[in-house]
Structure formats: structure tokens, C-alpha cells
Amino acid sequence: MKLSWLNQVFELISASTLQLYEDSGRFLHQFVGNQTQALILLQETWRANVLHWAILSYRRFSSTAIEALEHIIYACLVYLLVCLGIFYTTRSNSPLWRWCKLINNVRFPRQHKLDRVLLVTSHPDDECMFFGPLIYTLTHRSSCQVYVLCLSNGTITT
């Protein structure tokens, strides 16, 4: 987010303060004899400068608020499109879903019987997520026996 608007607000405040100081000095030197008229003119210029500063700061705030609202709307639209895409791909009659199921359906060749399987891993904490689906698939076969050998020195590192 840009902070240039903040610099502009500070510049506007300093410029309006300097202008008020110069105007008050000029009015007091000009109307030394008539102080009530000088105070009335000073109040009018003060109100005009403060009103001008308030309007500009409101415009700056509203423009940044509108920009933030636009970003929120864009994020919601992207989220909605992602959700609709996921919904479309996970429907059972979707061609993309059939293609994904075809890719995920990994089968072993028919010529291998896979009666006994030995799986050797180094530490079970990391390999469980990689070999978990394989072990799950093999254990659901009725004719397959799965053996898992974990080679570890037994130390726990934190």
C-alpha cells in the first residue's frame, strides 16, 4: 500500500498552518485599529482552511477505503472461482474427475503375484507419508503379507 497520501496530508497540514500564521499576521497588521473585524476575518480564514483540510483528508480516506474494498471483492471472487472449480472437478460425472481417478488408480502388473512384500525404511516418521498409501493398498489385498523394517538408532531429536 502506498504511503504517499500520508505525506500529502502532512504537507497539507503544514501548508495550511503556515498560511494561517501569515494571514493572521497580515490581518493584525492591517486592522490594528479594528480588532473585531480582524478576528472575524481570521475566524473565516481558519474555518475555510480547516474545512478544506477536512474535505481533502476525507477524500484521501475514502479513496483508500474504496481501494481496500476492491481488493477484498477481488479476493472473494478468486475464492469463489476456486471453490466452483473444485466443485466442478470433484463431481462424479465430470470428465476431469474421471481423468484424475484414472491417474490415481495405480495398479500393479498382473504377472506379479505380490504374496509377500518387505519394505525397508530408515526412519518411520518421514517415510510414513510417502509409503503410507502403498502399505494401505497392499494390506487390503487378501493374498499379500506386508513386512516393514525400520532401521533407526533410536534417538529422538527435537
From TrEMBL:
- Keywords for this protein: Membrane, Transmembrane, Transmembrane helix
Return the EC number.
3.5.1.89
Spans through the membrane = 71-89
What InterPro entries does the record point to?
A: GlcNAc_PI_deacetylase-related (IPR003737), LmbE-like_dom_sf (IPR024078)
Q: Which residues, if any, are the signal sequence?
A: none
Q: Does the keyword Cell membrane apply?
A: no
Q: What name does this protein carry? A: N-acetylglucosaminylphosphatidylinositol deacetylase
Which organism is the protein's source? Bactrocera latifrons (Malaysian fruit fly)
